[in-house]
Specification:
Blueprint: H1 3-36, H2 43-54, H3 57-77, H4 82-89, H5 91-102, H6 110-127
Helix pairs in contact: 1-3, 1-5, 4-6, 5-6
Length: 138
């Protein structure tokens, strides 16, 4: 396997892992916040919501997922161009919308689906390019 093909393969694998970790973490955080309830910006309510948030196992699981996604993201940035990684990982927006509908029962309007389709089109275009176009610095 050529060096470029190897970089493309490992970038694809880690981008998929990062998107998966981030998307699941966002879903878990949303479920956690649904358990906590609506937060109002009054001193008493805010303190209570803060306490419920920091003592929620669901919230901590979501945070752990975001940390995992961040670690994978940083690894990706160590070898692939930022201009490749950021758009490629934007596929998570489509997954979030899909999970919002299927898992959380949210309603996604036609305009939002159109936006998701535009994002996916952009991801497809970026995915056709090389992950690294700059020389590795010493």
């Amino acid at each position: 396997m050529s060096s470029a093909a190897h970089v493309r393969k490992k970038t694809l694998i880690l981008a998929t892992l990062m998107v998966s970790c981030n998307t699941v973490a966002q879903l878990v955080l949303r479920k956690g916040m649904l358990q906590i309830g609506s937060v109002h910006l009054h001193e008493h309510d805010l303190a209570g919501a803060f306490w419920k948030t920091v003592t929620s196992g669901t919230i901590w699981m979501g945070i752990a997922g975001l940390l995992a996604a961040f670690a994978v993201y940083m690894t990706l940035l160590s070898w692939a161009d930022y201009s490749y990684v950021q758009p490629a990982t934007s596929l998570g927006y489509a997954l979030v919308a899909l999970l919002g509908v299927t898992v959380l029962g949210e309603h996604v309007t036609l305009v939002r689906w159109f936006g998701v389709a535009l994002i996916c089109s952009g991801v497809a275009l970026v995915g056709r390019t090389e992950p690294r176009t700059t020389k590795r610095s010493v």
